[in-house]
Amino acid sequence: MTFGDILRTAWSNLTRRKVRTSLTSLGVTVGIFTIVVMLSLGVGVQRVIQQQFDAIGLENVVVQPRDAERNPYTRYVRPEREVVISPAKIAEWQQMDDIVSVTPIVDVNESISKRLVLPGDAAATIAVGVDPGIGINNPFETPPTALAGVLRPTKDGEIVISQRALRRLGLTAEVNNLIGQKVQLVMETPRGESQSFDYTLVGVSSVDNNLVALTPNDSIALKAWWFNEPDLLDKEGYDYALIRAKDLNVARQLTTQLRAERFRVQSVETVLELASKIFLVINIMLGSVGGLALFVATIGIMNTMIMAIYERTREIGTLKAIGASRGNIRTLFMTEAGLIGLFGGIVGLLGGWGVGRILNRVALAYLEREEVPIRGDFFYIPPWLIGLAIGFGLVVGIVAGLYPAARAARLDPIKALRHE
Amino acid sequence: MGQSTSLIRTTKLQRTYQMGKNTVQALAGVDLEIERGTFVALVGPSGSGKSTLLNVIGGLDRPSSGEVWVSDLELGQAPDKKLVSFRRDRVGFIFQSFNLLPTNQAWENVALPLMLAGRSRSERRKRAENLLEQVGLGDRADHRPAELSGGQQQRVAIARALANDPVLILADEPTGNLDSRTGRDVLLLLQRLVREQNVTLLMVTHDMNAASYADRIVHMRDGKIEQIETIERTAEAVA
Fold it and tell me: Where is the ABC transporter domain (chain B) (predicted)?
């Protein structure tokens, strides 16, 4: 018996009892439908989040030094650093292959008080913060732009100030005319010591805060004075380094390598990997719900097949008498069961796809109303899910058919022919 | 042994069944020889073992002891696979209740043994139409069994039994479900096929009138052959 004949025979047997066949495969449909909806939701949401992360730039690696272990004696002093991001390290990283750029970053934190002063105008003074300039865009905010000049200073002694801070200093002229303006940062310790630093304005940023941007060296100079530590750069190094790798793979390798060197490394990729793990668990849980439905469907198919074999006992006897082998009978009934599963799988897949499209529309309409700038497919069916759904349906059918088919194959033709 | 002119030869054939604690002896030592190209009727009261003998000769059942040769194959010792191919390629079965597949068209039913043998669909269709023509149903090839009368269905079944060009046709009460007129037509058809195609036909019946169409009548009782009758018939009587 050729495979085409088996398929044709199985098909005509299934269409003989259309309602029963449809109802039986409905069980598989429900199972596959659940799996497809659940998994496409899991995959879709994960993809949308991935797209958001991609916007941030996954190839960026943020390196931080590691603080040495504290003991009871060092508990209340500034922590020693186990590894230091020294200028030499920055230079070394810049020399590496596949690295686009390395930016050292100094965090002049909020507790260090600093005021922006116009030289010769004692009245014009405001408290400011120093923008460390991490350089990673937040996809939920519009990135700052340079209203005049540049966004980051390139030479020591240069400063970029937000338009808001300039206005509060009383500099209300057209921003382009302010470039070249001399300003001072004045630091004052609680003990009353003070020191001023001179800068030239090279840019005006659109940031909505009282922020200034300095070069790393100038930032270090501020901290060195504050902590009274002239060798600060040698001792503590920079606070961060932003390494922009050529691509994601390089970023991944770099992360591993730097961690081995005892640096603390944050890459968005690390966060994403954690998110993937969480999504895997969620997907498995969601998939299990469908799995349970499929288990019930398997029993349903088995039941239908056993009933069909009972009804068709005499037919099986006839086929055996005229020369059908056990294998022929077994293959025939397994094919019938497999087809029931396959149809259930296909219908479940189509249903899951359709419902996913509808729910996606609802979700997008909701996000639009709430003005969240996220777009995408929350119910995404990747090719592997198509294969999984159809394959699973088929396998469920075949597995359900194993026992009934074996029973049919074992029937004694003489008894089967006498069956009423 | 199988080289003689006889197609079927059984020696000391026994078949016992276990029915609970009782042992039923369906065949109690049957020695029978049937020559090629004869129409043999097996008659006897129910429980006489005639159907069991038919099943054993058809390779559906195995003897408890003794030998059963069909042509050069000893069925009692043959492996299962041999029995399957024996039934598929060399025997044709005709049943009392026709046993056609209801979803298949007449020609597909006729071609079933060829499908099992793995022949191509076009070859099957051609052969089936040819056979349906022979049994007088050339115009019913595309009908389903439900659209045919009992006599027509049995003729489709006869065509199916001929599909694999068998050496032996086994018929179990082929006229049991037919009225006497159509029964007579079917018997005449079977008689004609034996004459024209030189096939051997073994028919179980309890109807003596049906048996009278055969060349030989084997009477069975209590699992044994009681008497063998040979019916002399002139050529004119056949026609």
Answer: 8-238
